[in-house]
Amino acid sequence: MEERKLTVRAVERALDILICFTTDTDLGLTEISSKIGLHKSTVHRLLTTLEEKGFITRNQATEKYRLGMRVWELAANQSQEDDPAHILLPEMERLRDVLGETVSLYLQDGKERIRIQAVQSNQAIRRVAPVGMRAPLSVGASSKVLIAFAKEEVRAELLESLEWVSDEENGHYVSQLSEIQALGYATSFEEREPGAAAVSVPIYDRSHHLAAALSVSGPVSRLSMQKMKELAPMISEAAGRMGKMLK
Amino acid sequence: MEERKLTVRAVERALDILICFTTDTDLGLTEISSKIGLHKSTVHRLLTTLEEKGFITRNQATEKYRLGMRVWELAANQSQEDDPAHILLPEMERLRDVLGETVSLYLQDGKERIRIQAVQSNQAIRRVAPVGMRAPLSVGASSKVLIAFAKEEVRAELLESLEWVSDEENGHYVSQLSEIQALGYATSFEEREPGAAAVSVPIYDRSHHLAAALSVSGPVSRLSMQKMKELAPMISEAAGRMGKMLK
DNA sequence: TGTAATAGTTTCATAGAATGAAACTTAGTT
DNA sequence: AACTAAGTTTCATTCTATGAAACTATTACA
């Protein structure tokens, strides 16, 4: 039996166009149409619609398309009171000042994690962490935290959906997760970015649900395994304080 | 001859749904459908599509719809390097500290102006200025600046499109605009908000195009006409400095 | 200067996608 | 239990969205 679609194709396509602008700021019509594999005329019509509603504007100079003010406006009006990225910023800055390393805040979103807030170390050599970045949930200290401390159902689903190279690796990963659960923190050592290491701990809100992962990251030269082990309690303590500020 | 539409209706409707969330953070299906005047089933289908692409999520607790992370993500990746709201913030803070009043930055958008940045006075009685707010271009000091110092074509078009109560008023307004052009700044006295006054000056980018309107606003008790006249040169000077930082 | 190439825009016949009425599910209220 | 309200799904029909092709504007280059 062929599943009836419950979505609207034209809208899907228009949203795909918007999503193109997560990686690029300025795109031409042809560029977009080849990116999402649609005819120029179709893309043009969708762009006109997006432009009319203020979601897309054109760069005066280059004539190329870019995101319009409406996107910004919607984001500005998005609830800020209960937004961790907003509330926890001062505490993150404090932690950065104490440790001298870059501090980031991650949320799980589907099979990815997304960096919703970051404050940079002010040392010469430092981890640079752009806010808004997405990364796969399969690697990195914060990924492991987001999986290990997620609610049972969520974790099961995630482990299901993440593909593993082999069964042995799967087993190894699961045992790593229980270790993380026992310790209360996760580390990563050049897992995703060469030369970078990170410690990550869970932040729980007042109703004891996982709210985010808090990570401290820097160059391997300063963050040895031993050093991260030492820092972990301090970071956990900060995370505990932060959690009390949520919901 | 019936104009052929160059836009896509389904997409227009979906975007209208998103735009609903500029005023409210949480909305139910029925609420939305009555707001934009469409059938529940249609709205439901559009919402499902928006949800699948991450533009809408559902509030766990209330089951209501709200904006998703994608909106935030897009805004986060929006070009920040050349964004006045970002670049001018430190200078705005400095001005606020000197004058002790709320400082705002406005952009023209269609027949409206939009507050793209603001720093609040820290006095007990102060003008509160939420970022992202829209207001009609017909009233307020910054509106007058945005019109008076706009490029010739833009100004003509705006004056055309803004409706006037009477011809006399129109004449009065036009003469007011030339006065503003001569002075280099505009003021407003309880024009839009009772008890509030404001001085506004243009910010020009390096290629001498109007980039934004910079406003200082506060209670009429502190901002008399005389006082605003005194402040104007200082604000203009700050605006000049800011302009040099753009493009 | 002419010619080709490239990017963007509009037109139009046609397929099939989007639509809204209605039926159906929950869940909450009287 | 009957009623009300919000949300969800189904389905026949219509009109909308589609992509091919034509057209325009701009740039490259010979």
Automatic annotation (TrEMBL), chains A, B:
<keyword id="KW-0805">Transcription regulation</keyword>
<dbReference type="InterPro" id="IPR036390">
    <property type="entry name" value="WH_DNA-bd_sf"/>
</dbReference>
<protein>
    <recommendedName>
        <fullName>Glycerol operon regulatory protein</fullName>
    </recommendedName>
</protein>
<comment type="function">
    <text>May be an activator protein for the gylABX operon.</text>
</comment>
<dbReference type="InterPro" id="IPR005471">
    <property type="entry name" value="Tscrpt_reg_IclR_N"/>
</dbReference>
<dbReference type="InterPro" id="IPR050707">
    <property type="entry name" value="HTH_MetabolicPath_Reg"/>
</dbReference>
<dbReference type="GO" id="GO:0003700">
    <property type="term" value="F:DNA-binding transcription factor activity"/>
</dbReference>
<feature type="domain" description="IclR-ED">
    <location>
        <begin position="70"/>
        <end position="247"/>
    </location>
</feature>
<dbReference type="GO" id="GO:0045892">
    <property type="term" value="P:negative regulation of DNA-templated transcription"/>
</dbReference>
<dbReference type="InterPro" id="IPR029016">
    <property type="entry name" value="GAF-like_dom_sf"/>
</dbReference>
<dbReference type="Pfam" id="PF01614">
    <property type="entry name" value="IclR_C"/>
</dbReference>
<dbReference type="GO" id="GO:0003677">
    <property type="term" value="F:DNA binding"/>
</dbReference>
<dbReference type="InterPro" id="IPR014757">
    <property type="entry name" value="Tscrpt_reg_IclR_C"/>
</dbReference>
<dbReference type="Pfam" id="PF09339">
    <property type="entry name" value="HTH_IclR"/>
</dbReference>
<dbReference type="InterPro" id="IPR036388">
    <property type="entry name" value="WH-like_DNA-bd_sf"/>
</dbReference>
<keyword id="KW-0804">Transcription</keyword>
<keyword id="KW-0238">DNA-binding</keyword>
<feature type="domain" description="HTH iclR-type">
    <location>
        <begin position="8"/>
        <end position="69"/>
    </location>
</feature>
